[in-house]
Amino acid sequence: MDEMPLGLEAALARNEKARAYFDALPVQEQRQMMARARSCQSRRELRAFVQGLAGPAGRA
Fold it and tell me: What is the pTM assigned to this prediction?
């Protein structure tokens, strides 16, 4: 699999629900999520993206 962006790795490490969701995805979808994370222009945007992976409860 492709190498995970460091910012995504760090953000997932801080959000267990998002990490569990990401890990359960098929490899192709994980690659799509990594590509989306690479396109984030700021830490804030990346954090919001990862919180979105956790679902509505992850936004609280």
Answer: 0.84
Number of domains in the chain: 1
pLDDT tens sequence across 31-42: 999 999 999 999
CA–CA dist 34, 57 (Å, integer): 22
What's the first-to-final CA gap in the chain, in angstroms? Answer: 31
Residue 1: inside a domain, yes or no? Answer: no
Residues 1-40 as b/e (b if ≥16 CB within 10 A, e otherwise) read eeebeebbeebbeebeebbebbeeeeeeebeebbeebeeb
For residues 56 and 20, the answer to whether their CB atoms sit within 8 Å is no
